[in-house]
Amino acid sequence: MPVLMISNEESARVRKQKRFTTSLVVVFSASLVALLLGGCGQSSQPVPQPTSEPQVTPMPTLDASAVTLGQQVYAEYCASCHGIEGEGQQNWKEPLPNGNYPAPPHDDSGHTWHHGDGTLYRVVHEGSMARRQGITPGMPAFADVLTDKEIRATILYLKSIWSEETQQIQWEQSQRDPFPGQ
Ligand code: HEC
Predict the structure, then answer these.
(1) Is residue 89 domain-resident?
(2) In a domain, 11, yes or no
(3) Residue 60 falls within a domain, yes or no?
(4) Domain tally for the chain?
(5) Of 82, 145, 146, 166, which is best to mutate to test ligand 1, by the most ligand atoms within 8 angstroms of its C-beta?
(6) Which of 10, 23, 51, 110 could form a disulfide bond with 105, CB atoms 3.0-4.6 angstroms apart?
(7) Per-residue pLDDT of the chain (182 residues; tens, 9 = 90+)
(8) What is the C-alpha to C-alpha distance for residues 127 and 7, in angstroms, rounded to an integer?
(9) pTM (2 decimals)?
(10) Which CATH number covers residue 126?
(11) Which of 114-151 are b and which e, b meaning 16 or more Cβ less than 10 Å from the residue's Cβ?
């Protein structure tokens, strides 16, 4: 029994010692960082205060008449590849034997909502990046087919098939990447 007690005491002492060594290392590293920063002349700079969340303009409700126009455009020009309900083509993440990719879905299961309005506009107006780089024939450019108003309306229609939460995430993304001219 006494042997056990001694060994307990002993190990407590070792733990204490370790903790002390660790704090020494921490203190030393902190002083080193302070010294280095000081050397860069930053020591006199005011300490940056944690900023509050950037203000995001509240998400507007989708303009119903634009969504209706967008739905018509979508059915006529997009649905043949992306699916009538935006479901995309099968196995859209896998390249086809010829190296092209199938058309991706536009609903919540896809990737479209990861992009801000500006990027979506460019993809529809000028074709996908892969196409512009001549990698795949992929997503065609609609600059000569659709008006500016029709392209915006089609993107609004795509938003209307997203869940509220997805719309909110994409809206925040669009604050940094808005429609051209906004
Ligand atoms: C000929 C088939 C085809 C048509 C028609 C088509 N697309 Fe696509 N689209 C694609 C393919 C394929 C891709 C994937 C990128 C690539 O391979 O170029 C794509 C990608 C996209 C993307 C990017 C999605 C992402 O996650 O990055 C958007 C947005 C898009 N299309 C919107 C539209 C809209 C809106 C229309 C109608 C105006 C349309 N597409 C018509 C084939 C098509």
Answers:
(1) yes
(2) no
(3) no
(4) 1
(5) 82
(6) 110
(7) 444 454 555 555 545 555 555 554 444 444 444 433 433 434 456 666 666 666 778 999 999 999 999 999 999 999 999 999 999 999 999 999 888 899 999 999 999 999 999 999 999 999 998 898 888 888 999 999 999 999 999 999 999 999 999 999 999 999 999 999 97
(8) 73
(9) 0.75
(10) 1.10.760.10
(11) ebbbbebbbbbeebbeebeeeebebbebbeeebeeebb
Per the structure block, which two tokens stand in for 160? 């209307």
Instruction: Dig out the tokens for 57 from the structure.
Output: 């303009």
The one-letter amino acid at 38: G
**Ligand 1 neighbours by CB, cut-off 6 Å:** 77-78, 80-82, 101, 103-104, 110-112, 115, 120, 123-124, 128, 130-131, 136, 138-140, 142, 154
